UniProtKB/TrEMBL annotation, chains A, B:
Protein name, entry field: PaaI family thioesterase
Signal sequence annotation: none
Lineage of source species: Bacteria, Bacillati, Bacillota, Bacilli, Bacillales
Residue ranges of every copy of the Thioesterase domain listed in the record: 57-142
Native source organism of the sequence: Cytobacillus dafuensis
Domain of life of the source: Bacteria
Length: 161, 161
């Protein structure tokens, strides 16, 4: 299912900012999370690898936190892009967000070996600061809930030569 | 420096519960975070790999969240073990904690290529539930602050055959 998703926001991040271990298309070692609209919500689907173990049979919490994190920044980028009158794939680059804060409640042990679905609900706090509420599902079960506050990438993230 | 640390709590988790991607000694693909006492506080030191990039030159937030997560559960295990009259390496196994909730504030961009030092302050909420406040340093700069609520691993984490 993951392979069929078209027009993920991460497919259109500027090349220089597409190296994220979680969601950068240019990071060969990374997870390659990809985030799309699902009606008025957003979704990222990802199947953890066997190595992403916490206790045997269950998914590592740090991977779930990573999924929520990148889903949050990706969702904020989608939302600002739409607010600006654009859709992904229309030839314009979405803004790149980074995470100001991340909160995760682990609701129940998350079984390993099946797809996780992160669903986001996006809310504008400020033109450059968005809050994304995230639920992570396995089938119809909510296994984790998260909240991401994402901000448009500040200039402190640009390396000085 | 990481190689010289003795008596990390993760060195003594029961074999069946030492597979965590973040801190399990048996997970060949994982980060192998190792947590020790530092006076009345706890510390985990880890140097991210080049692939653990967010924006080029800076550490991926999901890796920082993972470090805080495992440092939290490891610190809780250290604290309960000491409360029970034991020290790591005295021949007794520490309890295995899992994460109930995780909160991370990303204070400033975290430079890649240098060691991160997570320092924890542990507080008992309940005999089976501990809160760990974590600061992640690069040299003397706090780059992230976290809070982990860790609970003794419940029976729902034991796979049914």
């Amino acid at each position: 299912m993951e392979g069929k998703i078209q027009n993920a926001v991460q497919d259109y991040y500027p090349d220089d900012f597409a190296w994220c271990y979680g969601c950068g298309r240019q990071n060969e070692s990374g997870h390659h999370f990809r985030t799309v609209w699902l009606g008025e919500q957003t979704v990222t689907i990802y199947t953890p690898k066997q190595e992403h173990t916490a206790i045997p049979g269950f998914v590592y919490g740090g991977l779930i936190a990573s999924l929520i994190d990148c889903h949050g920044t990706g969702s904020a980028a989608l939302a600002l892009h739409r607010k600006n009158g654009h859709e992904i794939g229309d030839g314009t680059e979405p803004a790149r967000f980074v995470t100001a804060s991340l909160k995760v409640d682990f609701v129940k042990p998350t079984p390993l070996g099946v797809p996780l679905k992160a669903v986001g609900t996006v809310q504008e706090i400020h033109p450059k600061k968005w809050k994304v509420d995230v639920e992570v599902f396995v089938n119809d079960d909510v296994c984790a809930r998260g909240e991401v506050v994402a901000v448009v990438m500040p200039s402190t993230f640009v390396k000085k030569d």
